[in-house]
Every structure is written in structure tokens, then in C-alpha cells.
Write a structure and sequence with these properties.
This protein is mainly beta. It is built from two helices and eleven strands, in the order H-E-E-E-E-E-E-H-E-E-E-E-E. A hairpin with a 6-residue loop joins strand 9 and strand 10. The longest helix has 18 residues. The chain is elongated. The chain starts with a helix and ends with a strand. The N terminus is likely disordered.
Length: 192
């Protein structure tokens, strides 16, 4: 085989390899994705809440060690397990859902080791304010979904932020700690 043919073959193989390493897009499964949080209540206890409705996408290229995440949370779906608190949280001094019915987290997967991301470098938009919030991925796995016969990936990610940085300072004057621990449990299925 001459040098020209060998170079052409090498280029074709490289192109084919690049084509198979394209990112895969996954749609978030809303029945298995529930962003949740813990927030201080006067230093006495931690209140825990979750959001029952969310949507979004994940892209992942394990070979290249890249990917993105976008989660859109319906803040009107807040659930503390206590109806009076749920109603209060919708109001202007907390989530102000009449004006801001969604919160968004967008980021890039990073810290890959053996095709598995270790963190998300991203931004949270809450009450119209966008700030950086990094999430640590504590658990991550992809596998064939037994029912849908497509790949499904799941992760548990966590991070923290100060809610008054986003304009949510209710209780600060009473000594509430503004630190919020955020958890995102997520499962996403490959798009056909």
C-alpha cells in the first residue's frame, strides 16, 4: 500500500472514531428526578424540601470526558411535607413563584475519571439572580434501561449556596443561617 493510500485510510479511521465518540443526549426522567434542599430553621432544626416537577437534558461524551447538564425546576411544585409551609414558600419572601415560577441549574460535567464525571461546574438561577454553584457528584452510573432498552444514566449530586445571595433573606434578621444544602437526584434516558 502506498503512502497516500495509507494516509487516506488513517484519516478515514480517525474520522470514523470521532463520529462514534459524539456526545449522547439524555432527557431527564421527571418521575425519577427530585431536586431537594436543607435549610436552617432558627438554628433549631433543618427543614427539608423537594420539588416534585423538573425537566431538562444531559449530554455526555464519556470518551472525550465532556458533558452538560440543564435542570429546570418548577418552583410551584415545592413540597416540605407540610401544606402550610408549602403555601408560605410560594410567597414573595421565599420563592416568589408568581414572578419566578422556575429555577434553573446549568453546568458542565468535569473532573472525569475513567469516563465518569466527578463534579458539575455550573450556575444556579433563582429569583432572577444567577450565581456559580458547583456540585460534587457522589454517585454516577449508566446502564441499559431494562424497560426502555436504551441507556439510562443516574447521579446524586450535592452542593451548597447562600440563599441571601439570590435575594431570599427571609429569617436572616432572626438568626437563620443562610446556607442551603442542595441535592439533585437525577435519572436521564438516552434520546432515540
Amino acid at each position: 500500500m502506498n503512502k497516500f493510500a495509507l494516509c487516506a485510510l488513517a484519516s478515514l479511521v480517525a474520522f470514523a472514531g470521532a463520529a462514534t465518540a459524539a456526545p449522547i443526549t439524555y432527557k431527564i426522567d421527571p418521575s425519577h428526578t427530585f431536586p431537594s434542599f436543607e435549610a436552617d430553621h432558627m438554628g433549631l432544626s433543618n427543614w427539608r424540601g423537594k420539588f416534585n416537577k423538573s425537566e431538562g437534558t444531559v449530554t455526555l461524551d464519556k470518551k472525550a470526558g465532556t458533558g452538560t447538564v440543564e435542570v429546570v425546576v418548577d418552583t410551584t411544585s415545592i413540597d416540605y411535607g407540610f401544606d402550610a409551609m408549602n403555601e408560605h414558600a410560594l410567597g414573595a419572601d421565599l420563592f416568589n413563584t408568581a414572578k419566578f415560577p422556575t429555577a434553573t441549574y446549568k453546568g458542565k460535567l468535569a473532573g472525569f475519571k475513567d469516563g465518569v464525571p466527578g463534579k458539575v461546574e455550573g450556575e444556579l438561577t433563582l429569583l432572577g439572580v444567577t450565581k456559580p454553584v458547583e456540585l460534587t457528584i457522589g454517585k454516577f452510573k449508566c446502564m441499559p434501561h431494562p424497560m426502555y432498552k436504551r441507556e439510562v444514566c443516574g447521579a446524586d449530586a450535592s452542593g451548597s449556596f447562600k440563599r441571601d445571595d439570590f435575594g431570599m433573606s427571609a429569617g436572616k434578621d432572626w438568626g437563620f443561617n443562610m446556607e442551603v444544602n442542595l441535592r439533585i437526584q437525577i435519572e436521564a434516558i438516552a434520546v432515540e
